[in-house]
Amino acid sequence: MKVAVAGCCHGALDKMYETLELLQRRHNVRPDLLLCCGDFQAVRNEADLRCMAVPAKYRHMQTFYRYYSGEKKAPVLTVFIGGNHEASNHLQELPYGGWVAPNIYYLGYAGVVRFRGVRIGGISGIFKSHDYRKGHFECPPYNQQTIRSAYHVRNIEVFKLKQLKRPIDIFMSHDWPRSIYHYGNKKQLLKMKSFFRQEVESNTLGSPAASELLQHLKPTYWFSAHLHVKFAAFMQHQTNSKEELPKATKFLALDKCLPHRDFLQIIDIEHDPNAGDSLEYDAEWIAVLKATNSLVNVTQSSWNMPENNGLHAKWDYSATEEAIKEVLEELNHNLKIPCNFTLTAACYDPSKPQKHVEPVHTINPQTTEFCAQFGLTDINDRIQQAKEEGSVRGEYEEEEEEEEMDSTGSAEEPSEYNTDNSGLSSINPDEIMLDEEGGDEDLSTCSVDPSPDHPPDFSASFSDIRIMPDSMAVSSDDAMDSTNEELEKSGVSKQVEEKSLNERPLKRIGGNENGNSGIKKIKRRNQAIYAAEDEDKTE
User: Fold this and answer.
1) Where is region (Disordered) located (predicted)?
2) 443 vs 8, 45, 50, 393, 421, CA distance in Å?
3) What DSSP letter does each residue of 68-97 carry, written as one string?
4) pTM: predicted TM-score of the whole model, two decimal places
5) Domains in the chain and their CATH numbers?
6) Tens digits of residue pLDDT in 204-215
């Protein structure tokens, strides 16, 4: 089947789906599935905008609300993960995944589903070591800290995914797995993005948690976004025994959804021709969720997941064949995910702006139904209970180690990742874009202009869309510098250009060049990544 993969969508659903339709008209290529690697921005209304961690001037309604309201419907089944620029209050309603609109499915904090026999997994958010060992304690209305920590990856999600034993076909993360750049055309990457050099050379660019998952899961494909540059790599995994067959992962990072950007890729993936066309639960993943349910934590306490170090009575939470069979029997062998999308918030009305509406903490009926069906803890319900009991507060307190939580986790253990990359300029640009840069942006200010009803002018062409060749042989390091060029010249590549829309380029970030040289460098890096102009020429 044909799978379309998109980078950072940034709420531009109309543009993304129009590009797919253009591909079908011009080249008779129709994807069966669309995957989006984060920064989807499922913004329903002005309250959602206030829960998105971007400066106020970048808070635009975009077009998702039209799909949420039912005015439009996604023309292709769309599955996405969260990034670091999301309506966190909306996605938080669905910690285990669910429909954000008809035909648009969110994988949750972490998740695995099946489509036509293809096993698809993903993890939402980006890595920040100082939040990695905390629970999911945040809830709206967020403050200046929790509006960002809400989308930071937690160790419990990585732990759950590491319990999987069966092969994964496709995996998605928003930020790149650390070290993946050593398995592709690193020279070309640094030519396009020279400001990555320090982190690449020190091997600190990307997420160590994602890298750990890559080594464990060894999926056939791994897709990422976040850094707004297209990059391909091929990683040959080491085998654990002579009997184990060699495995390799084809990695692809996509650019953001903007004119002149290569933000879509079409890939042919083997599937089960006898499987149905419905999105399905994954029985092993459900069994893992049930097994790890006792580990759910909704506090700011830092703790490590159980491991075989003599401190835990149990450390293996992988699903047995019996547990997987029980899940299948509970579902009567019908794994189809119910189409139970429900409106849980008012939809944006361009004729009746609500600029001062406050976000509220909502429990989504989809999550309630899912937890009841499989006997799981509703994380949002637990947060609300904890708030009522006074044990969880929205304020960030001083970092401190808490008492040992229970027999399954310990706060005395050191973090498995003792290097905090949050200060590095090319790792987590969302942190740099906010208080550290400019400082005068009010995150509570809501701006919805321009709206889709008065869109900005477009003066550039749509991105190219290419079909990936079956083989992506990329050397480790720089031995083969022509990989990206080969992809460009591939005989099966398709190019689609649309020149009928005009767009005004967005303003660059941080125009002030005065002050501290370190801040100046950070601002230049953010300009290169986040400005809508095509400034890929390195400074």
Assistant:
1) 387-462, 474-539
2) 21, 16, 7, 20, 24
3) HHTSS--SS-EEE---SSS-HHHHHT-TT-
4) 0.78
5) 2-392 (3.60.21.10)
6) 999 999 999 999
